[in-house]
Amino acid sequence: MNKFEKHVQSKNNDVVDSGVGFVVGFLGLTAIYVVAQIFQIVAG
Hints:
The chain crosses the membrane at residues 20-43. By secondary structure, the chain is mainly alpha-helical.
């Protein structure tokens, strides 16, 4: 076992972190899309 395995900075599950990152990114892009659609409807 090397020194990096002995002194772990974060013991969180990587799957959970990846899922949170995916959801946050998806919601951000969805918000951009929704705002663009609202502008298109209002302008049209």
